[in-house]
Specification:
This protein is mainly beta. Helix content is 0%, strand content 56%. The strands form four sheets. Strands 2-3-4-11-6-9-12 form a seven-stranded antiparallel β-sheet, with no helix packed on it. A six-stranded antiparallel β-sheet has the order 1-19-16-21-14-13, with no helix packed on it. It has a four-stranded antiparallel β-sheet with strand order 5-10-7-8, with no helix packed on it. It is globular and about 40 Å long.
């Protein structure tokens, strides 16, 4: 039985979605005691554009949950199942354009504090050479991040690498019991003062992200 850390739960079904400029968006504001600033999910209409305001000393992780987008002035193409990390440097705004005319795009955006970082970026594909384990994700962003695809009833334990960091967990698909709390698709949990995080998949092909920040 894990020791219950201080935590905040974010239930997807209770989220407020805002419709603006051909995008439907929800935001999770984390607070001052974490290196993670905000988590944003935006559904971009066909051929629409979403604008991300870049604060100083920020890094971003973008995961395309479905669809296809073009990133910024470079026009880099990002498909479903791929991720993109960016340390902003002097960039003040990032544009994400839905590159499809007959399909929406769904993008998850994690914004983190990165002190003194020069502008840089990296892209990659999310693959699962092994199931039922956490695989590294977005190390370029400066924080330990992991993703795992799990079969039903499979369990896992994550050991926090650095004290005084919180751990943000989000269920991308399916259902998990995370630190004895039930989370379903797009639900999230922010855990502080934890040394280990225990979880169990409650459905087949359950997909979990953990970010230590």
């Amino acid at each position: 039985m894990p020791v219950q850390p201080s935590s905040r739960i974010f239930v997807s079904g209770l989220a407020v979605w805002i419709r603006k400029n051909a995008c439907t968006t929800r935001e999770i504001h984390i607070g001052e005691n974490s290196g993670l600033r905000t988590v944003t999910e935006t559904v971009i209409d066909e051929n629409g554009t979403f604008h991300v305001t870049c604060l100083p000393e920020s890094s971003f992780v973008l995961l395309v949950l479905y669809g296809e987008i073009l990133i910024g002035s470079s026009g880099q193409k990002l498909f479903s199942g791929q991720f993109f990390t960016l340390k902003t440097g002097k960039i003040k705004e990032l544009t994400l354009k839905n590159n499809l005319q007959e399909e929406k795009a769904d993008v998850l955006i994690l914004e983190m504090i990165t002190t003194g970082a020069e502008e840089s970026s990296a892209a990659g594909e999310i693959t699962f050479p092994e199931r039922n384990i956490l695989l590294p994700l977005c190390s370029h962003a400066g924080y330990p991040g992991f993703i795992g695809l799990y079969d039903g009833r499979k369990e896992g334990i994550y050991t926090v690498s650095q004290k005084n960091r919180s751990v943000f967990g989000m269920v991308i698909n399916g259902a998990f019991e995370l630190q004895n709390r039930l989370l379903e698709t797009r639900d999230a949990l922010l855990m502080a003062e934890a040394e280990t995080i225990e979880f169990e998949a409650l459905s087949e092909n359950a997909l979990l992200i953990l970010l230590e920040a």
